[in-house]
Amino acid sequence: SSRTFHGNNRLLTSQIVSHYESINQGEKEVPEYFNFASDVLDKWTQLEKNGRKPANPAFWWVNDKGEEVKWSFEELGSLSKKTANVLSEACGLQRGDRIVAILPRVPEWWLLNVACMRAGIVFFPGTSQLTAKDILYRLQASKAKCIVTNDTLAPAVESVLSGSQFLKSKLIVGQGSRDGWLNFKELL
What we know:
This protein has 7 helices and 9 strands. The protein is α/β, with parallel strands linked by helices. The chain has a single domain, classed as 3-Layer(aba) Sandwich (Rossmann fold), CATH 3.40.50.980. The chain is globular, with a radius of gyration of 19 Å. The model is unreliable at 1-12 (pLDDT under 50). It catalyses: a medium-chain fatty acid + ATP + CoA = a medium-chain fatty acyl-CoA + AMP + diphosphate.
């Protein structure tokens, strides 16, 4: 009972629901701690390495220009570990700290999301349509210690930085450098 997707077998929704029903009925144990990055992503990576699961992309992104990024489970796992290291070492974040990401839906957005899960950092996503006032509100309300954005949105962020007392680091996703910002791609 599986369907085919690009020639590979996947679980049907009913099988997934059945798994969760067995947890609800006490037939399976609920883990005390659950971390998507290590409990799912890393396990799927190991299954692929052991030949017990066919290789499927874990992440496949295509923009409106036709450019694409495709990562295997192993690549996504490795990149998310490196990103978690950037967040904890270069940005000085610890478990429970908060990060605001104001980015369009670029691959780094998902990478940051998984890295935050891995490191226990609270991820606050923000749309690239936020105004400076919106950004300031999110920084103040979340007490974020780090903000991540791109070259285009950095000026709006910079215009409100004086109002954010908790912010310790600024991370930019882009090709160039910007005064006072850490460059994500260089650190990765």
